[in-house]
Design brief:
Elements (H helix, E strand, L loop, with lengths): L1 H11 L8 E9 L9 E4 L4 E4 L5 E7 L2 E8 L5 E8 L4 E6 L8 E2 L6 E2 L7 E5 H7 L4 H5 L5 E5 L5 E5 L7 E5 L2 E2 L21 E6 L3 H4 L6 E6 L12 E10 L4 E12 L2 E12 L2 E2 L7 E2 L4 E13 L4 E16 L9 E17 L5 E19 L2 E19 L6 E17 L7 E16 L2 E15 L7 E15 L4 E12 L3 H5 L1 E4 L4 E4 L7 E12 L4 E25 L2 E27 L2 E16 L12 E9 L3 E10 L15 E14 L2 E10 L23 E9 L1
Parallel strand pairs: 1-7, 13-16, 33-36
Antiparallel strand pairs: 1-4, 2-3, 2-5, 5-6, 8-9, 10-15, 11-12, 13-14, 15-16, 17-18, 17-42, 18-19, 19-22, 20-21, 22-23, 23-24, 24-25, 25-26, 26-27, 27-28, 28-29, 29-30, 30-31, 31-34, 32-33, 34-35, 35-36, 36-37, 37-38, 38-39, 39-40, 40-41, 41-42
């Protein structure tokens, strides 16, 4: 309670806030052409107006300050800009003619586009998400710069960001943790379904300020819109999609309905996925045994809106996933995971509730999660993870040009693994975090900074007394718009992560990783000191993003191979040692030819990460260097995209780790759009691994027994109304 009292005392001390007034302005392109008859939407508070023939607009009862606006252009592109509406009541917005769509990143506190953030961000949405969608979140994101995956068959695959995964990359669902057991083991699936996703956001580097210590390596946020946060313009709209994959005989489908009238908006969605064993490349013959998947789920949500004052919504969701863990031989006893999660979410937001406060935003999520590991027909281990998370964000009005927020976050987790092969004792983890973030523009330079303090407690019958750890994180960033085409970003951060229950208390065979794990109650918190530098070009025929990063860890927590054997498994002990991660990411797009609506462009991509301990040892499961090229032809209602990516050998291995050979992946994507009556159709075909290469993903724990799927074709259709 003392944190809440401090939070509100700081807020109420703000003085001299401007009162609401009418704001008038004009939007023009850089050549002076007015942006006419265009829908202008303020993200917060939710206000929409349309510019006239001269590009002018008027907003009533708006307080001066910095706002995120969306402009829905006649070309179909949505442009996101951060605009300062000043006290002089007249604001001119000079808009670059966009070559790429700018999407609001919901995981950022002030809801802005990726180009307006000092940290590197990747966003998948719209047609790009449809064409790249895989059976897991990891597979869906695996081709993005700086991101790979750690597949454990077709049922589970966690994203790997710059060589980090597990409990250092936080998986979110609409800004709240997935509340599952996916971070405890690589064979545990993330309980977010790609088929339901409207948008997937990846924030790279330490994001601990907003989302806590488990985001020390980055954040994956899956946005599915289960709680409507905008009042509905139409009483009913929806979409449905079906798809088939030849590589594992996968049949999948999803449907959603959204709508409402006036003060009420609703959402309903559901999906299914049914697949057989994955086919292996022809040189290996046969299928990957016990790699089939049977999954389904549904969500439903409703929100009430009070004009421009705010909204309150609630949603329920069910997730079920039954999948096999790959086996080398039919002689083995097949192991399956049967996961069930029931989840409830609440979200509410008030706009300008009282003087000095721009908004108050509350989110809360609670789940009932259980999964059973079946050994043949018998129950081997039962995992339970009952958790809840809540966060409150209070954003203040601009004060001397500074705009920001105070927040508080609570996490509670009761975790248990019961059975003969349970490798970690039951535990309860509670954490409380308070944070403060601010930003201000100085001409073409924007400065961001923030602070966060966390307290974590772990209790268990395996330890005599409660273990409490306090951690502190801070960051400062700058975004400098060099000219209309180029921008430069710099982010410096110091983030801390306390050891979790598994790292402290593990003691037993962990069959998913084929190791005997020993925890260490003497572990201290680890500290990451990170620098991120970005150069971005986003106008003209050539667009690119170049990111470079260096991350030095003090007391990095890792599993050391002891060289000893227990229960026929190698013993790995959790220990600490200083470590460093460094790398580079390049993503580029060059428009070679344009004639009306016909365009030809080429893409290039490079990413590389090097991770070592202070004694020179390599860290395990670090993805190799990767180069990619592609060519895209697009016209009025269809496009074809051909890509080739070269993954090099990975010989920089940790002790007792095997190396992997390089390989080349060639993919082709084709999309065709058609409108007929009330429906808009998208037909899509995707060919993957067309060279039928043997692919052993170095980040996978089971790369030696489970190569990735051979040549496959995915085809489907999506209908929207």
């Amino acid at each position: 309670m003392k944190y809440i009292a401090l939070l509100f005392s700081l807020i109420y001390s703000i003085q001299g806030i401007a009162s609401p007034q009418s704001i008038e302005g004009k939007i023009v392109f850089t050549d002076g052409t007015p942006v006419k008859n265009t829908l202008l939407h303020l993200v917060e508070p939710q206000i929409s107006v349309t510019t006239n023939e001269l590009g002018t607009f008027s907003l009533s009862k708006l307080k001066p300050g910095s706002y995120t606006i969306q402009l829905h252009l006649s070309s179909g592109l949505v442009v996101v800009e951060r605009v300062d509406f000043s006290n002089d009541k007249n604001t001119n917005v000079i808009l670059d003619k966009p070559d790429i769509e700018r999407i609001v990143v919901t995981a950022s506190l002030t809801q802005r586009s990726a180009l307006d953030m000092s940290i590197p961000v990747n966003v998948l949405s719209n047609e790009e998400l449809v064409s790249k969608r895989g059976s897991t979140i990891g597979e869906t994101l695996a081709d993005e710069p700086g991101i790979s995956a750690s597949p454990y068959g077709a049922g589970a695959s966690r994203p790997v960001i710059r060589g980090l995964s597990g409990n250092r990359v936080r998986a979110l669902q609409n800004g709240i943790g997935t509340l599952d057991a996916s971070s405890t083991s690589p064979d545990h699936a993330i309980s977010s379904e790609p088929l339901l996703a409207q948008q997937i956001e990846v924030l790279k580097g330490p994001i601990t300020l907003l989302y806590g210590s488990e985001a020390i390596g980055g954040v994956i946020n899956v946005v599915d819109g289960r709680i409507p946060n905008q009042s509905s313009i139409e009483p009913l709209n929806g979409s449905a999609e079906i798809r088939y994959n030849s590589g594992n005989n996968e049949k999948a489908g999803v449907a959603r309905l959204d709508g409402g009238t006036g003060m009420v908006a609703y959402h309903v969605s559901g999906y299914f996925r049914d697949s057989g064993d994955q086919s292996l490349p022809s040189s290996l013959n046969g299928d990957l045994l016990n790699s089939d998947v049977d999954a389904n789920g549904a969500t439903a949500g409703i929100s009430l809106f009070d004009g421009k004052e705010g909204y309150f919504g609630v949603a329920i969701g069910k997730y079920a996933n039954n999948y096999g863990l790959p086996a080398e031989s039919k002689l083995e006893e097949f192991i399956r995971l049967d996961i069930e999660q029931n989840r409830t979410d609440i979200e509410g937001k008030l706009y300008s509730p009282f003087n000095g406060i721009k908004s108050i935003h509350l989110k809360w999520g609670k789940n009932d999660y259980q999964h059973v590991e079946l050994e043949g027909e018998e129950i081997g281990t039962v995992f339970s993870n009952d958790a809840d998370e809540s966060r409150l964000e209070i954003m203040h009005e601009a004060l001397s040009g500074w705009q920001g927020a105070l927040g508080i976050q609570f996490n509670n987790r009761d975790f248990s693994a019961q059975g003969e092969e349970a490798f970690v004792p039951p535990s309860t983890t509670k954490s409380t975090g308070i944070f403060w973030v601010e930003e201000k523009r100085f001409g073409e330079i924007k400065i961001e900074w923030g602070l966060r303090h966390d307290t974590q407690t772990v209790t268990s019958s395996a330890i005599l007394e409660e273990m409490e750890t306090k951690s502190f994180s801070t960051s400062i960033g700058a975004l400098w718009r060099l000219n209309p085409s180029y921008s430069f970003a710099l982010a410096l951060s110091r983030a801390q992560r306390p050891p979790n229950a598994e790292e402290l208390l593990s003691n037993g065979p962990h069959l998913a990783t084929q190791t005997y794990e020993l925890g260490n109650i003497n572990l201290a918190k680890e500290t990451a000191n990170n620098i991120d530098i970005s150069l971005r070009k986003h106008l003209g025929k050539l667009n690119f993003t170049i990111n470079g990063f260096y991350n030095k860890y003090d007391d990095f927590i890792y599993e050391r191979a002891t060289g000893e054997i227990e229960d026929e498994l190698p013993i790995f002990q959790f220990e600490q040692k200083d470590a460093s991660f460094k790398g580079i990411e390049i993503d580029s797009d060059w428009l070679l030819f344009e004639n009306g609506l016909d365009k030809i462009s080429v893409q290039g991509q490079v990413d590389y990460v090097r991770a070592t301990l202070s004694n020179g040892e390599n860290l395990p499961r670090i993805p190799p260097i990767r180069f990619g090229v592609g060519a895209l032809y697009e016209t009025t209602n269809w496009f074809v995209d051909v890509t080739a990516r070269r993954y090099f050998n990975q010989n920089k291995t940790a002790p007792f780790e095997t190396s992997t050979d390089g390989y080349t992946l060639v993919d082709v994507k084709f999309n065709y759009q058609l409108s007929s009556g009330f429906f808009d159709y998208t037909f899509f075909i995707r060919g993957q691994n067309l060279l039928d290469e043997v692919v052993r993903n170095h980040a996978s724990f089971i790369k030696d027994i489970a190569p990735l799927q051979g040549r496959s074709i995915t085809a489907g259709v999506r209908a929207a109304f």
